[in-house]
Write a structure and sequence with these properties.
1 helix; 6 strands; about 50% strand
């Protein structure tokens, strides 16, 4: 799936150790489109390299194209859905969302 949106908030990265002993790191960020309904998305970036690249190349206020997958996990008969961003690039300004050009450095694919 793909959406063009403006980054509105970047949460603090979290990290931990899985049950199998592997280290993990993830970051969540909010992005907003100009659509009338369902215009706010909370995406996750998972993996240390992806988190570091996101923080290096993306800023609040930047207009980006986000490629993502929808993932649902089950735990104790409860279901949790997340939007996992896997590629983020600087978008063309076709949404009329102002963003200073000197702050837009472009995004790198993960």
């Amino acid at each position: 799936m793909k959406v063009t949106a403006k980054i509105t908030k970047v949460m603090e990265a979290t990290s931990g150790t899985s049950a199998t002993g592997k280290e993990w790191k993830k970051l969540s960020f909010l992005a907003e489109t100009t659509e009338e309904y369902n215009n706010l998305y909370c995406f996750e970036v998972f993996g240390e390299e992806k988190v570091d690249n996101f923080l290096k190349f993306n800023k609040v206020g930047q207009l980006v194209d986000i490629d993502f997958n929808v993932k649902t996990n089950e735990w104790k008969d409860r279901y949790f859905t997340s939007l996992q961003a896997w590629k983020i690039f600087k978008a063309e300004d076709n949404m009329s969302v102002p963003a200073p050009m000197e702050e837009q450095q472009g995004g790198l694919p993960f």
